[in-house]
Design a protein that fits this description.
With 140 residues, this protein is α+β, with helices and mostly antiparallel strands. Helices cover 24% and strands 36% of the residues. The protein is globular and about 40 Å long.
Amino acid sequence: MKDTLTSVILSIKPTYSKAIISGTKRVEFRKKKFKRPVDKIFIYSSSPEKMIIGYFTISEIVQDSPKNLWSSFNKVGGITETDFFDYYKDAEIGFSIVIDKVCKFENGIDPIDFIEKFCAPQSYIYVEEKRLLSAAILNY
């Protein structure tokens, strides 16, 4: 039986979440990796939007030094070099989540509708995919 907790909600600034949805940002940079295998990431567009706007599947997750990640992914990362290295300041290792397929929800989903006492994650939270997709279908 498939583990129902292979999806996460990832908090992403609106500038970057919109770039993922539009296809101009093809990789998401992170300082920490997931503790469990993850195959789907729901995009929580943080303040001021505060909505889940879609999801993407993962092609691969690359672990390397920030310098090497920048060298490999700067053209598809959707971030300036200054912002990238500010984000990874003092980090020896980083992670690039390479985006495979993206799905935009017609209407954003307020996570409070299906997660009691929802608080935007600092990094990520595991989520039961079928509950979230049910909420997405109801919003169409």
